[in-house]
């Protein structure tokens, strides 16, 4: 999967699209995916890959759409440690850092 | 990520090379302009990297050899790494993403277990080769996700495979032929290769007898069998061929990821080691 995400990226960029790429760079505790897991955030919602799904991934997608807009790379800290009794759905127990950057054809 | 870097990654993956993508994920203080810069590099230090971390312009060009060295080490160890470099004028973090050549699984014997095992292994990103001496079984139509399906004599084809890609510590071999004599024949062929894993199917009773026979009749050192995973797999009480394939794949993942599960072969290994100690002591 992660080996072919670059091929997807190449195809999307060749279509003239600006997309964002999210990569899990650090994890601590129990999280749904491993360091190095990648996801392409597509401006129209045709995302490819996953950084773990759920609310954490929703945060990453929102940040990815911002990155597509302004082109500025950023890190998103995903906290899945909230108490199980709380309303939040992300309760794996760990935290992770996700690096998000833009990818486009004319990017230099 | 700029088009040059992306193209270098895609080309390298197409050629099945081991490659690392370096990304500046955090750039504090004077490093700030480097944020989001990339470099693609390979194990061979003589091969020029593609891209630029942009550190020379920031007066930190001397850091580059250290970063490249650390990245190549991550690549050699097949492990993604998030490196941190702290300087008086700022902190730089570089994520090294490793795209190593995928591990290869060689399934010897194209019978009932091989079919689900080949598809599960492909799902787990293994490059799968299936080998059998019966062309009607070793047929590409039975193994749509396999990279290679080879019909030919077992030992000769194993030798060819060894010559083609090499049997290294990212090679996993599963012996599940139709008859134990073929499993043993192949086992003898690969016994001295530096493989990540050799698994052989068979009951405990059968395996014990086979190892003893080989020691007695072929004069093979008993320790050589210690790394053989036989009986094969993790004990999940698997019944059907598909379930057995899952139990074999689980063992392979356990070996690859250095997991804590105890394989079914452990009991025989312990018995045999204890017996050797008794013999040595007496």
Overview of the structural elements:
The complex is a heterodimer of chains A (108) and B (282). Chain A has 108 residues and is of the alpha+beta class. Chain A has one domain (5-103). Chain A is built from two helices and five strands; from the N terminus they run H-E-E-E-H-E-E. Chain A has a five-stranded antiparallel sheet. The longest helix of chain A is centred in the middle third of the chain and has 17 residues, at 54-70. The radius of gyration of chain A is 14 Å and the shape is elongated. Chain B is an alpha/beta fold. Chain B has two domains: 3-99, no CATH class; 104-270, NAD(P)-binding Rossmann-like Domain (Rossmann fold, 3-Layer(aba) Sandwich), CATH 3.40.50.720. Chain B has eight helices and eleven strands. The radius of gyration of chain B is 23 Å and the shape is elongated. The A-B interface holds A 1-4, 6-7, 9-10, 13, 21, 23, 25-26, 35-36, 72-73, 75, 99, 101-103, 105, 107-108 and B 1-3, 6-7, 9-10, 13, 23, 25-26, 35-36, 80, 82, 95, 97-99, 102, 125.
Which terms would index this structure?
heterodimer, A: 108 residues, alpha+beta, five-stranded antiparallel β-sheet, 2 helices, 25% helix, B: 282 residues, alpha/beta, Rossmann fold, 2 domains, six-stranded parallel β-sheet, 8 helices, elongated
Subunit arrangement of the protein? heterodimer
- Largest interchain contact: A-B, 25 and 21 residues
- Which stretches of chain B are poorly predicted, pLDDT < 50 over at least 5 residues? none
User: What is the CATH homology-level superfamily of the largest domain in chain B?
Assistant: NAD(P)-binding Rossmann-like Domain
Radius of gyration of chain A: 14 Å
Which regions of chain A contain 5 or more consecutive residues with pLDDT less than 50?
none
Brief account:
By secondary structure, chain A is an alpha+beta fold.
What is the secondary structure topology, with strand pairs?
The complex is a heterodimer of chains A (108) and B (282).
Chain A: H1 5-14, E1 19-28, E2 38-41, E3 48-49, H2 54-70, E4 74-79, E5 95-103
Antiparallel strand pairs in A: 1-2, 1-5, 2-3, 4-5
Chain B: H1 3-14, E1 19-27, E2 38-42, E3 50-52, H2 63-76, E4 81-87, E5 90-99, E6 104-108, H3 114-123, E7 127-132, E8 148-151, H4 154-165, E9 171-175, H5 180-190, E10 197-200, H6 204-218, E11 228-229, H7 241-256, H8 266-281
Parallel strand pairs in B: 6-7, 6-9, 7-8, 9-10, 10-11
Antiparallel strand pairs in B: 1-2, 1-5, 2-3, 4-5
Helix pairs in contact in B: 3-7, 4-5
């Amino acid at each position: 999967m992660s080996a072919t995400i670059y091929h997807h990226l190449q195809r999307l960029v060749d279509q003239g699209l600006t997309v964002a790429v999210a990569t899990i760079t650090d994890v601590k505790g129990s999280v749904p995916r491993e360091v190095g897991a990648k996801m392409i955030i597509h401006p129209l919602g045709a995302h490819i890959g996953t950084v773990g799904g759920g609310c954490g991934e929703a945060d990453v997608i929102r940040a990815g759409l911002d990155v597509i807009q302004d082109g500025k790379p950023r890190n998103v800290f995903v906290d899945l440690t909230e108490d199980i009794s709380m309303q939040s759905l992300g309760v794996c127990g760990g935290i992770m850092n996700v690096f998000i950057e833009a990818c486009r054809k004319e990017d230099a | 990520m700029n088009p040059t870097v992306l193209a270098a990654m895609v080309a390298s993956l197409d050629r099945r090379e081991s490659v690392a993508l370096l990304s500046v994920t955090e750039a504090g203080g004077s490093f700030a302009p480097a944020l989001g810069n990339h470099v693609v590099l390979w194990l061979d230090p003589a091969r020029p990297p593609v891209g630029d971390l942009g550190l020379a312009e920031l007066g930190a060009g001397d850091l580059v050899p250290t970063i490249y060295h650390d990245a190549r080490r991550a690549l050699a160890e097949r492990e993604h790494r998030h490196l941190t470099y702290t300087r008086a004028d700022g902190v730089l973090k570089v994520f090294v993403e490793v795209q190593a050549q995928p591990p290869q699984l060689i399934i010897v014997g194209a019978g009932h277990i091989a079919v689900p095992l080949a598809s599960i292994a492909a799902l787990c990103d293994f490059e799968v080769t299936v080998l059998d001496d019966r062309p009607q079984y070793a047929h590409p139509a039975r193994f749509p996700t396999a990279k290679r399906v080879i019909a030919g004599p077992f030992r000769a084809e194993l030798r060819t495979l060894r010559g083609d890609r090499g049997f290294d510590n990212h090679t996993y071999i599963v012996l599940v032929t139709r008859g134990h004599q073929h499993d043993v024949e192949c086992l003898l062929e690969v016994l001295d290769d530096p493989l990540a894993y050799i698994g052989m199917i068979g009951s405990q009773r059968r395996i014990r007898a086979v190892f003893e026979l080989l020691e007695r009749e072929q004069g093979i050192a008993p320790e050589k069998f210690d790394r053989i995973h036989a009986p094969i797999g993790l004990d999940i009480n698997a019944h059907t061929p598909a379930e057995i394939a899952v139990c074999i794949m689980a063992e392979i993942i356990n070996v690859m990821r250095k997991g804590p599960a105890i394989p079914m072969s452990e009991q025989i290994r312990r018995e045999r080691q204890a017996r050797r100690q008794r013999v040595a002591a007496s």
